[in-house]
């Protein structure tokens, strides 16, 4: 059986998308479905390629007992649109960057969350609002996993 491949995308791949990758991976693991998924993250920009996730991302994940592993930032590539079934952006700016540079349409993570949430996950790089971002990412990932399980017949 082919694995379901999910790629989370933000700007630099050090804050939001690696957080979503780690949160989603734990959710999948907790449901006993780890062998059915490939989960990754990348950035639209190349500024942080090779760097570990931001310390704020690592701290909030640690506080919530979620492993980040040996994640290093990588840049989104054209091949990713062939390799991944779901490419999920964190905000409208990321959507526009993907459309401009890759001519691909992607959805935002918060489109999968329950109603009442903003459609954009704010970038905590400057605001340092990692706790707020974690709550949004968690809600979005829960909705995304439900959506995938229903649509993939799992």
Descriptive notes:
- The chain has 154 residues and is α/β, with parallel strands linked by helices.
- The chain has 6 helices and 4 strands.
- α1 (16-30) packs across α6 (130-151).
- The longest helix has 22 residues, at 130-151.
- The protein is globular.
- The termini are close together.
SSE diagram, text form:
Layout: E1 4-10, H1 16-30, E2 37-43, H2 55-63, H3 80-83, E3 86-89, H4 92-102, E4 107-108, H5 124-127, H6 130-151
Parallel strand pairs: 1-2, 1-3, 3-4
* Structural classification: alpha/beta
* Secondary-structure element order, N to C: EHEHHEHEHH
Average pLDDT works out at 95
Low-confidence stretches: none
User: What is the global morphology?
Assistant: globular
Give the tally of β-strands.
4
Distance between the termini: 12 Å
Helix count, per DSSP? 6
Helix content: 40-55%
Largest sheet: 4 strands, parallel
């Amino acid at each position: 059986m082919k694995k379901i491949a999910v790629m989370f995308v933000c700007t630099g791949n050090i804050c939001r998308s690696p957080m979503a990758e780690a949160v989603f991976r734990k959710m999948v693991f907790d449901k006993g479905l780890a062998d059915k998924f490939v989960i990754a993250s990348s950035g639209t920009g190349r500024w942080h390629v090779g760097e570990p996730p931001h310390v704020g991302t690592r701290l909030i994940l640690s506080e919530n007992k979620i492993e980040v592993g040996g994640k290093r930032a990588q840049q989104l590539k054209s091949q990713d649109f062939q390799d991944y079934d779901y490419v999920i952006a964190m905000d409208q700016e990321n959507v526009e960057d993907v459309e401009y540079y890759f001519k691909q349409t992607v959805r935002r993570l918060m489109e999968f969350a329950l109603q009442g949430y903003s459609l954009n996950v704010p970038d905590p790089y400057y605001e340092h609002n990692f706790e707020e971002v974690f709550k949004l990412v968690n809600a979005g990932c829960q909705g995304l996993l439900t959506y995938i399980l229903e649509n993939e017949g799992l």
